[in-house]
Automatic annotation (TrEMBL):
<keyword id="KW-0472">Membrane</keyword>
<keyword id="KW-0406">Ion transport</keyword>
<feature type="region of interest" description="Disordered">
    <location>
        <begin position="57"/>
        <end position="77"/>
    </location>
</feature>
<dbReference type="GO" id="GO:0034220">
    <property type="term" value="P:monoatomic ion transmembrane transport"/>
</dbReference>
<keyword id="KW-1133">Transmembrane helix</keyword>
<keyword id="KW-0813">Transport</keyword>
<keyword id="KW-0812">Transmembrane</keyword>
<keyword id="KW-0407">Ion channel</keyword>
<feature type="transmembrane region" description="Helical">
    <location>
        <begin position="25"/>
        <end position="46"/>
    </location>
</feature>
<protein>
    <submittedName>
        <fullName>Calcium-activated potassium channel slowpoke</fullName>
    </submittedName>
</protein>
Length: 113
């Protein structure tokens, strides 16, 4: 009889049961709060840096002499054609339409799947 009692006690006190018997809900709650606050801090720092580094020029009235100088300086420079996203969309559109060799290969691979 002693051997069956030992088996019962060892089976009920396995390491998994010991682990599950201790609840540490506060660890989950604390890690969630820390993650949330860290995310807010990172976004705040990013916004502050963007505000400090990427300010827009103030709007000037049409008859302002400074604006005339700025327009003259801009005409000497080449106009910006678009953003990176515009270029990426155009490139993706060309690939999907199959107008280039790479696009034809891509379209053929997609259709074969």
């Amino acid at each position: 009889m002693a051997s069956s009692e030992e088996e019962v006690t060892t089976a009920s006190s396995s390491p998994e049961d010991d682990c599950l018997s201790v609840r540490k809900w506060w660890c989950f709650l604390l890690s969630s709060i820390i993650t949330f606050i860290t995310g807010l801090f990172i976004v705040g720092v990013w916004r502050c840096c963007a505000y400090a580094c990427c300010r827009k020029e103030p709007e000037l009235s049409p008859n302002d002499p400074k604006q005339k100088e700025q327009k003259a300086a801009r005409q000497g420079k080449q106009e910006f054609e678009g953003t990176f996203m515009t270029e990426a969309k155009d490139w993706a559109g060309e690939l999907i339409s199959g107008q280039t060799t790479t696009g034809r290969i891509l379209v053929r691979l997609i259709h074969s799947l």
